[in-house]
Records
---
Amino acid sequence: MINKDKQISSIAIKQVFLLAIILILAGLICFNLALFIPSVLGAITIYVVCRKYNFYLQEEKKWKPWLSSLLLMLASLIILILPIYFIGDLLIEKLGNAQAYMTKFNVFLEKIHSYIYSKTSFDILSKENMAKLKDSVGKFSTTALSSTFNTLTVVMSMYFILYFMLEKPRLFERILTSSAPLKRANVSLIGEKMRKLIMANAIGIPVVAIGQGIVALIGYFIFGAPSPVLLFALTAAASMIPVVGAAIVYIPVCIFMIAEGNTGSGIGLGIYCIVVVGLTDNLLRFTLLKKLEDIHPLNTVFGIIMGMNLFGFMGLIFGPILISLTLLLIQVYGNEFSDDDTPDLQLPGSNDEPEQKIDLIV
């Protein structure tokens, strides 16, 4: 006789079947519209940044929705997109000729290696290791730059999507909220965490990067570093990488200048970068980024690696967001299906305060 308690209920079977269909359809959509994933991520990022101002203009100042949307799109283009696009375009312009770039890079490496070996007799870069390094740098730069050539298409489609988000923001958030099969508190948690993550990545990281790049650029001009504008773009991009940061650019440059015979300038640039650029990095990170959201360095490292492979230069911002969102969803999953009805995580509105209206993004 079959034990009915051990039978799978028809409701559970229907749920699994429906979930499988949803996952298959979502996979097909993502696979065929993969080109527009960066556009969607970018539109959501800018929407979160502009959300407060959009509600202010539409609901308090009574602006026409299309007018406030266009104004905020223009402002985001000037303040957020153009500085990042400028750095990416500069790198493409300077490094677009892969053969000429690799020739200069090989000379640069050989000069540094010869100088270190002559002074220390330490073969820090053997021929085998140098060949691997050159090959890795060549592949990475080619992939990153080729992925960035579609930036114009991504930006155009991103603003097309963003317009409809900004024009009817309440409708957009209501659709997302009603579509999420989660507890209300978890929807609020995701909204609040996403707001902090996006603000930290979309505003904090680029501000730190450009700030370090500008401070380093001043030093490059003062001490006569080669190609200071190119070094500015490389320093700004490298500063987004935790732990090593901008040092991965300015230390080899200092050694190269010393190897070229510019000992005083090389040492002076090294001291300037360690003290001034390092101080700028610490100041911005421990004030701006800590205030926005304390993101673990490993999230940023793996996020940048994944983001650059998926989205090119724009992955510097989107990659860490995706890693952090994945970890957040794992936390929400544990909270959603735990036996305890009380959330383990500190959620907005989870105190004994009177229940308030909760938006998707607080």
---
Amino acid sequence: MSPRIGFTGDVMLGRVVDDRQRRRPVDAVWGSTLERLQHLDGLVSNLECVLSTRGTPWQRTYRPFHFRADPDWAVPALERAGVDVCALANNHVLDYETVALRDTLEHLDEAGIAHAGAGETIDEALEPARFAAGDVDVAVVSLTDNTPEYAADEDSPGTAWIPVDVEDETTRERVETALERARETNPDLLVASLHWGPNMVTEPPESFREFARYLVDHGVGFVHGHSAHVFHGLEVYDGVPIVYDAGDFVDDYRVDPELRNDRSFLFVLSTSADGAHEDLRLYPTEIDDCAVHEASPGAAEWARDRMRQLSEPFGTTFERDDEALVCSLEG
């Protein structure tokens, strides 16, 4: 059986989630999804907060939201779920200034959870994360176009920031550096995890489609997008799944009654060491009481219908297998 690698959208463990988790078991945040998560061979998530109790809220530019979680519970929670990689190139890793970013890197390192997309310098931020899913060696690069003031440079900590523009010289240089470093590890699967675009939009712009295809043409075997807080349609390009946005996996956000940012999927890729993808399964999820759960029948049906509708313009087709959607990878 091919190893199964899970991908989630945003995992935001701060604010009300952090408060609730201080009074309940550390794995409660994963709700009824915990068993499914633990049975995966690998798990990649966008960590949408810092893991620290230190620092002061970023004030150098206007930032309305600041997210951090107490590492005393948050790190064990990530371990219980079996998270292998945290993508850190996003718009919250400097919410509590550099001390909290450094705490986050240290806590993840101590827990043996790989990370990519942020570091002491841009050079560190472009380094890939690596893990093994069964007999499949995986490398993950993490990039963002959000919050340029959080960008790392040659001397300052921050994110692997780029404009999403295949013609931009800085973009091409940084992307090609990140991909080349990942390829040097000789992975069976190269993943690009991208925190891109604004909140609450329902489809990717053409520039994102061009960029995703550029990544696939340069050896990326799975595109893992997030940032919009709502899932987008799924495209298959040259046999490679492009998840333009995975939505939110867990958070405390206000729910839009039409866009339903509390509903998404756990994306599970079955792949092999020879680089052949077997299938991509989408398991519906929903957020309730600051925890993620397997979606109720009504929420699951809504999410499946919505994914089919959003994916139709890309020519992507699905079959139903129990509660999951199974994506055809013959695009």
---
Amino acid sequence: MHHILYLHGFLSSPASVKAQATREYFAQYYPDVQLHIPQISNSPAHVEQQLLTLIAQHPGLIENGLKAIGSSMGGYLSTYLIEKFGGKAVLVNPAVRPYELLQNYLGEHVNPYTNEGFTIVPSDIEVLKQLDTARLNNPKAYRVMLQTDDETLDYRQAEQKYAHSHLIVEQGGDHSFVDYSRHLPDIAEFLLNGIK
């Protein structure tokens, strides 16, 4: 049994289009892969403990190195976990400095998927900074998928940080990563080395 962790982005959920496409693909082509898609807390202050608890509850996730897929903020969190536990990750339009971006999100919000209300406070920015990974131990542990017309994040930040990783930079697209499903066979291959 192989385990893969999928981490969605900020203001998203396991019901997102990419998360569901990933679930369907692995269910069809890799039935012995257990895909974990947690609802990540909207509050950055709770995210690290939530993820560490999840891994403690499912030790199979890190048995042979963590395998993760992370979108946007989920890409930032996936990098933190890979640097902590080892393994490899596919990052889709990953956030590189979300603590800068969230400066513009201080205040009250509602998650459009869950309708949960929450508040981003200045201490959340500091919490995110603590999860930053200034240096990558093994850049080749990352497959990084970027689209240049991402309207939320500057793709060049990720292009620079992951310059020595497996980089895929597509012209156009948007933050959701247009045509993501087309990449799922390569994502599975990268994470599982062709093991079915």
